[in-house]
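Next comes the chain:
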Amino acid sequence: MVYYTKISIRKSSNFPKNIEKKIPKFRYCLKRLSKIILLVKIGKPNVMTHLLMLLIVVAMISFALSACAKDKDESRNIKNSVITFSVSNTFSKAAGDHFIFGAEGSRDDTTIVDWKLNGRKIAGDVSIDDHYVDGGKSNITVKSVSPFFRGSVGFTFSNIGRAPYTVTYTIKTNDIIIDQKTITISSGETYFKSYSL
């Protein structure tokens, strides 16, 4: 006589439809905990069979809980950033002034997020140089298009000309001001600053 152990998997009929779309951050939890019911049928009691089934169930629950914990941790780290800055009209590329700005962000799966520069979508990392701010420019806005988990922003500018110029900037992440400065760069000076978002 052959004894067998059968495991069947089915969806719970009591679970709301499309809940994964409504709460995407809990997709792993829903798939592994709420939507799956294990029905273990054993033809004849057997210590090794019970032990094997127990190990399988424990392993699946552990995997599900770790996925839930990961989603929970990531949800706390979701970020959106907005950087605004202005460069005074005394900035002159022809006189030797230099300006570099860069911003980048990525999701946990290393996917690079896009940004908007004054409303215009930029694919991937955004960078601004001397040409964009030559002669001065006000209220430049750089905004992340989608949420990210890791990001950075940096400014580098120098004055090789004669007339000083001013750079004013504000960095916000999740509506919290990370930093806000007004920097005046005189002849012969260089400024560099980077931030983790």
In short: The chain has a mean pLDDT of 75. The longest helix spans residues 47-76. The two ends are 65 Å apart (CA to CA).
